[in-house]
Amino acid sequence: MPLNQQILLDNRPAGEAQLGNFRQVSSPTPELQEGQVLVRHHYLSLDPYMRGRMNEGKSYTAPQPLGEVMGGGTAGEVVASRHSQFAVGD
């Protein structure tokens, strides 16, 4: 299995986001359970609202928790599947 590589929000930016606001972690990819797929993401949508989520204050959307991967739209390819509706290559 490939390594699961993630970029996490490590601390809240003051002004423009900097490299030091993030940290990269790698961990073994867990074995797939029945009904799961493993996707290699090729594209991630980086949208302006994401910068607002890095702040802790009240907003129209919840703040991004520190130490977690920020959610976003992606396009990728199924590289392993234990789901009846998704095949490798989808």
Structure, described:
The protein is mainly beta and 90 residues long. It has a single domain (3-81), classed as Medium-chain alcohol dehydrogenases, catalytic domain (Quinone Oxidoreductase, Chain A, domain 1, Alpha-Beta Complex). It has one helix spanning 49-53; strands at 3-9, 22-28, 37-44, 74-81. The strands form two sheets. The chain has a two-stranded antiparallel sheet with strand order 1-2. The two termini are 18 Å apart. The model has no long low-confidence stretch (mean pLDDT 92).
Write the layout of secondary structure elements.
Blueprint: E1 3-9, E2 22-28, E3 37-44, H1 49-53, E4 74-81
Antiparallel strand pairs: 1-2, 3-4
Offer a concise description of the structure.
The protein is built from one helix and four strands; from the N terminus they run βββαβ.
Question: What is the overall shape?
Answer: elongated
The count of DSSP E runs of length 2 or more, i.e. the number of strands, is: 4
Q: In angstroms, what separates the terminal alpha carbons?
A: 18 Å
H and E order: EEEHE
Highlighted features:
single chain, 90 residues, mainly beta, Quinone Oxidoreductase, Chain A, domain 1, two-stranded antiparallel ribbon, two-stranded antiparallel sheet, 1 helix, elongated
